[in-house]
Amino acid sequence: MTSSPYHPPVKRSVQIDRHKTSISLEPLFWEMLKQAAEREGEPINALVARIDAERIKSPTPPGLASAIRVWLVVNA
């Protein structure tokens, strides 16, 4: 992670159900996602897929990057 939490989003590819997609998150959130995946005992791709499945069930689903940020804050 960079020394400052204020950094533009970084785009990375993840795979959800054999489908690659790009997600842009700030480095702070990428680090939080990595730590959450370790804590949950699953790969980042699996955690993102789970967050995506939860997001889709919402009456007004946000974008995936927003859903990841919210999930990370709620599950901190």
Automatic annotation (TrEMBL):
GO terms for molecular function: transferase activity. Residues 9-73 form the Ribbon-helix-helix domain. Pfam families: RHH_4 (PF13467). Gene3D superfamilies: protein bp1543 (1.10.3990.20). It comes from Allopontixanthobacter confluentis. This is Aryl-sulfate sulfotransferase. Keywords: Transferase. InterPro entries: RHH_dom, RHH_sf.
